[in-house]
């Protein structure tokens, strides 16, 4: 049996945790976007690469790639669900 929508009932603890985690994610994504925009505006890419810790930068790029791929999969699934 499917649970009624949250509007018709109180949220369960796990649902509250999910909402809290999503709010944190939204804030962190916004923060990362702002930091990257500032770096791009203030510094040329070659200077960023020259002064960055290469290992840390490559790890950051991999982490952002992983996040991007997760968002793309989430988006594609959402598009499939709306077409059904």
What labels would you give this structure?
84 residues, 0% strand, 2 domains, mainly alpha
Structure at a glance:
This protein has 3 helices and no strands.
Describe this structure in words.
With 84 residues, the chain is mostly helical. The protein has two domains: 40 residues; 31 residues. Helices cover 80% and strands 0% of the residues. It has three helices and no strands. The longest helix is centred in the N-terminal third of the chain and has 30 residues. The radius of gyration is 19 Å and the shape is elongated. It starts with 12 loop residues before the first helix and ends with a helix. The model has no long low-confidence stretch (mean pLDDT 93).
Layout: helices, strands, pairs:
Elements: H1 13-42, H2 45-51, H3 54-83
Rg is: 19 Å
Q: What string gives the helices and strands in order?
A: HHH
Terminal-residue CA separation: 21 Å
Q: How would you state the average pLDDT, rounded?
A: 93
Structural class based on helices, strands and sheet pairing:
mainly alpha
Number of helices: 3
Shape label: elongated
- Number of self-contained structural domains: 2
What percent of residues adopt helix (DSSP H or I)? over 70%
Low-confidence stretches: none
Could you describe the largest sheet, including whether it forms a barrel? none
How many strand segments?
0
In terms of DSSP E residues, the strand content is: under 5%
């Amino acid at each position: 049996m499917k649970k009624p929508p949250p509007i018709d009932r109180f949220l369960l603890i796990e649902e509250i945790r999910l909402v809290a985690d999503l709010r944190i994610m939204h804030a962190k994504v916004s923060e990362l976007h702002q930091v990257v925009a500032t770096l791009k505006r203030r510094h040329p890419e070659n200077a960023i690469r020259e002064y960055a810790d290469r290992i840390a930068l490559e790890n950051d790029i991999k982490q952002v790639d992983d996040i991007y791929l997760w968002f793309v999969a989430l988006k594609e699934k959402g598009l499939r669900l709306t077409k059904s």
